[in-house]
Amino acid sequence: MSAFHFDTLVWHWPIAIYLFLAGVSAGAMFFSVLLKHFCLKDKAHQSGFIIAACIIAAISVVAGLGVLVLDLTKPLDFWKILVFYNPTSVMSMGVLILMLYQVFMYAWIVITFRKIIDDFCEQRLPIVCKLTRIIAHYEAGITGLLVIFCVSLGAYTGFLLSAQPHFPMWNTGVLPLLFLVSGLSSGAAATLLGGVLLKGNPNGAEVRFIHKIEIPLILGEILLMFTFFLGLVFSGGQSKVAAFNAVGVGFWGFIFWFGIMGLGLSAPLAMNLFMTATSKRKFAYVAGTACLSLLGVILLRNFILYTGQMVVN
């Protein structure tokens, strides 16, 4: 059996990319909201990390949808799923969450960068200033709903797989939680990487704030990973077979132990624990830990996608 080609394979790597990009978008917006309301306040629009998070979130969600559409058997019929929603379809509900998430995401971005937008449009398009004032009036509600849809989108990437009845490794309630936490972790990493690339201060308040949250996130991800596989083993039958097949010897076993648990989780955790609160953070440190975290999450998405389809009920 090849690692990427076997008889029971239904969903290929584009789905893993879609799941990764959706998680990055949700995580980046989640952390941009936290940064604004608990760290930067009215100066949020001046932060390279907030700017990076907003750009990454907007591009990632559109790119993810694009990958999903291109992977469909009939991509030109995709518009139907945007119009005709089926409450019993996980895919349809996921698209609805994606659409609503984008509405509140763009509204929040307008509120955050309202000063820049108003300064630019005051003389050219005064109606835009009236529109931004109306949107800003509902900031509290928009922010609350955006956080809810960030969490929903992050968890949905796991629900999409766990709803598939023929693959025992995916049929567990832990998977949505695992994908939610790893998605938030990837969003934090993408925000840090994008921020320092946009000349944000690697020793700034934004980096220190995210790193404080990143440590419990990584620990939670490791705990969920342990719970995920322990639950499969205790379930017995094909679930147990799928678990041992995934983390045993071979290509995917190497990816799990070295790529995900080693490079993607243990290395960033060790680097964060090694860096004391008073230590000065530099570009290489921030970019390095962020790249390792992103590598771990994209490997995790591919690992779960492919190994989950190797054993069927």
What class, by secondary structure content? mainly alpha
Oligomerization state of this entry? single chain
Q: Name the helicity range.
A: over 70%
Query: What is the global morphology?
Result: globular
Average pLDDT confidence is 90
Question: Helical segment tally?
Answer: 12
**Distance between the terminal alpha carbons, to the nearest Å?**
18 Å
Provide the low-confidence segments as ranges: none
Query: What string, H for helix and E for strand, traces the elements in order?
Result: HHHHHHHHHHHH
Structural commentary:
- This protein is mostly helical.
- It has 12 helices and no strands.
- α8 runs antiparallel to α12 and α9 runs antiparallel to α11.
- It is globular.
- The protein starts with 12 loop residues before the first helix and ends in a 5-residue tail after the last helix.
What's a concise summary of this model?
With 313 residues, this protein is mostly helical.
Write the layout of secondary structure elements.
Layout lengths: L12 H28 L7 H24 L7 H5 L6 H23 L1 H8 L4 H12 L1 H24 L11 H24 L7 H31 L1 H11 L3 H24 L8 H26 L5
Helix pairs in contact: 1-2, 1-7, 1-8, 1-9, 1-12, 2-4, 2-8, 4-6, 4-7, 5-6, 7-8, 8-9, 8-12, 9-10, 9-11, 11-12
Question: What attributes does this structure have?
Answer:
12 helices, mainly alpha, 313 residues
